[in-house]
Structure formats: structure tokens, C-alpha cells
Automatic annotation (TrEMBL):
It comes from the Bacteria. The lineage of its organism: Bacteria, Bacillati, Actinomycetota, Actinomycetes, Kitasatosporales. This is DUF1697 domain-containing protein. Coiled coil: none annotated. Gene3D superfamilies: SP0830-like domains (3.30.70.1280). PANTHER family: BLL4334 PROTEIN (PTHR36439), DUF1697 DOMAIN-CONTAINING PROTEIN (PTHR36439:SF1). InterPro entries: DUF1697 (IPR012545). Transmembrane segments: none annotated.
């Protein structure tokens, strides 16, 4: 198999002082799994690496298992290849180039989602906030940022994400991951 560049998106680490995963240890862990070109971005669980084996699901399971062995707690991990990350950025339905990075977010999902999952959500009640679905992704426009977003809070309800791994990144991180995985 040819080598491929991926990003690993870790969910729920280094938030509020718990579930600590130092980035230096994450880099060492990925290198210990045989990956090369390993790098991290921010402390929120974004890593890039080149692998010569596996696919997104098997690599996510491999990284998640290694994290649990190393740190003693379960970490949900999504792995996405460079082409997918680029496609998500290119497909953004909002005018990303006119918005601040904190106003636009992408939630990456472990599987495709359809509109029926969100049908009970009254989108008009949250305006000017909006969301659109993409391929295993949800784009959220939150003009006041995610921390103040009522729609973001509603979208994070367990009933809407049941059976999925979901992790969000602001637009600055989305574009940085595209840049870091661009070969």
C-alpha cells in the first residue's frame, strides 16, 4: 500500500484540566505505531501523520487503543485523509473567506448523517445561526462563536449524535489541517 497523509481528530481531551494528553506524548505514540511525518496542532487533539497501512477506521481504532493503553482512559478518535479534509473545506456552504474563524465550525462524524436526524430541530428558532450538512460533516455558522451558540448546544444533544463519534473544529483549525496534510 502506498503511503497516505492523515489527520487524527481526538475528541474531548485537554478540556477543563481533565483527560490530559500532552502533544509530545501523542506524537511519540503515533511514531511508536510506525507512522512518520508526525505533527500536532494546538492542544485540543489534532495530529497529522503519514501511514503506509490501514484505512480511516482501522487507523482510528489503532490510535484510540494506543491512547487507552498509554493514558488509561478511552478517547474517541476520527481519522480523515488529506483528500477528505480538502473536500470538506472546499464544500463549505457558508462564505468562509468573509467570516472570522470562530464564527464557522465543522463537526466531523464517524458516519454519514442525514437530514432526518435533525428534522425535529426548529432551525428558524436559532437564526441568525445556521447549519448545513455535508459528507460525514456538519457546518455551523455561529456569528457570536461556539461558546455562545444556542444552536451549537442543541446540535450537541446526545439524541442527535446517538451512535456516532462527533468532534468539532473551528474554521481556523479546519483550514490549518488542510494545510498540514497537503502533500
Amino acid at each position: 500500500m502506498a503511503t497516505k497523509i492523515y489527520a487524527a481528530l481526538l475528541r474531548g481531551i485537554n478540556v477543563g484540566g481533565s483527560r490530559k494528553v500532552p502533544m509530545a506524548r501523542l506524537r511519540a505514540l503515533l511514531e511508536g505505531l510506525g507512522h512518520i511525518g508526525v505533527g500536532t496542532y494546538l492542544q485540543s487533539g489534532n495530529a497529522v501523520f503519514t501511514a503506509d497501512h490501514g484505512d480511516e477506521e482501522s487507523l482510528a481504532a489503532e490510535v484510540s487503543g494506543a491512547l487507552e493503553r498509554e493514558f488509561g482512559f478511552t478517547v474517541d478518535v476520527l481519522v480523515r485523509d488529506a483528500a477528505y479534509l480538502r473536500a470538506v473545506a472546499d464544500a463549505c456552504p457558508f462564505p468562509a473567506d468573509t467570516l472570522q474563524g470562530k464564527q464557522l465550525h465543522v463537526t466531523y462524524f464517524s458516519a454519514p448523517v442525514d437530514a432526518a436526524r435533525f428534522a425535529a430541530l426548529d432551525q428558524a428558532a436559532f437564526l441568525p445561526e445556521e447549519f448545513r450538512l455535508g459528507d460525514r460533516a456538519l457546518y455551523l455558522y455561529a456569528p457570536d462563536g461556539l461558546g455562545r451558540s444556542k444552536l451549537g448546544e442543541a446540535l450537541a444533544r446526545p439524541a442527535l449524535t446517538k451512535g456516532l463519534v462527533a468532534t468539532s473544529r473551528n474554521w481556523n483549525t479546519v483550514t490549518k489541517l488542510v494545510e498540514l496534510t497537503d502533500a
